[in-house]
Amino acid sequence: VSFGFEEVTPDEKVARVKGVFRSVASRYDVMNDLMSAGVHRLWKHDTIAKLNPQPGEKLLDVAGGTGDLAKAFIDRADRAGRRRRRDALASAVVCDINDAMLDAGRARPDMAAYEGRINWVCGDAQALPFEDRSVDAVTIAFGIRNVADRSAALSEFRRVLKTGGRLAVLEFSHMTVPMLQRMYDTYSFNVIPKLGELVASDRESYQYLVESIRKFPKQQVFREEVEAAGFSSVSVTSFSGGIAALHFGWAV
Ligand code: SAM
After folding, report:
1. How confident is the model at residue 142 (pLDDT cuts 50, 70, 90)?
2. What ipTM, to 2 d.p.?
3. Does position 33 have pLDDT exceeding 90, yes or no?
4. d(Cα 246, Cα 37) in Å, to the nearest integer?
5. At the topology level of CATH, where does 2-251 sit?
6. In the structure, how many helices (H) and strands (E) does the chain have?
7. Residue 143 Cβ < 6 Å to ligand 1
8. Where are the domains of the chain?
9. For the whole prediction, is pTM greater than 0.90?
10. Is residue 124 part of an annotated ligand binding site?
11. 29 labeled part of a ligand binding site
């Protein structure tokens, strides 16, 4: 399997990816905002809007890191609940292979309000520590690219989803306009590793980030992978000209 542009064994990839996120955990949120000029927040907002969370639902946010999507899911379900005067509370599990990321999430000041509604669980997307058909929605944002065996992870998402559950995969993707790809290449190959060096003192992890994005399959190819895992009515939404894409599917 590939780690950036290098070929490594699947176990080696798991170990190296762990190293990358252990080293970036403490500066993770600030780097996300810097690199995307805050735009990742809009992509995440649109992802949650598409999921349309409802009161009482349970989300599993895989590779959930510091918990952005879990928090947004609960907030939106609460707003839907107020409109409908129902009182069942939505909840979320943030599952990540790296406890340094989970610790950074738990320590966020804005997470105090979600005590008891968000659980933080250390686990691997390729072998999820959850029961069959136990959640209403699965999300994975900027995580599937790091998983060595994508089809194993997608099967796991299908396994833990209830019938009628939905899957949202948000990931960096490929530009839909070739001229933009050239500008984006210049930005990502030059600016991102430099930012990583300056802000997080870690050029290599951000170099990996750029290379792993380039290696990830294009929108239509990944859509077929999602369908092959048993998801129905899979749709693709490209954001910001294809810098990121949302793949959305149903477990029926
Ligand atoms: N979802 C969060 C967000 O959007 O801000 C975090 C994304 S971060 C770029 C990628 C996360 O994937 C890291 O927290 C990393 O530890 C996690 N990760 C990598 N490989 C994983 C795996 N096999 N299973 C679960 N999590 C994994």
Report:
1. very high
2. 0.99
3. no
4. 19
5. Rossmann fold (3.40.50)
6. 10, 9
7. yes
8. 2-251
9. yes
10. yes
11. no
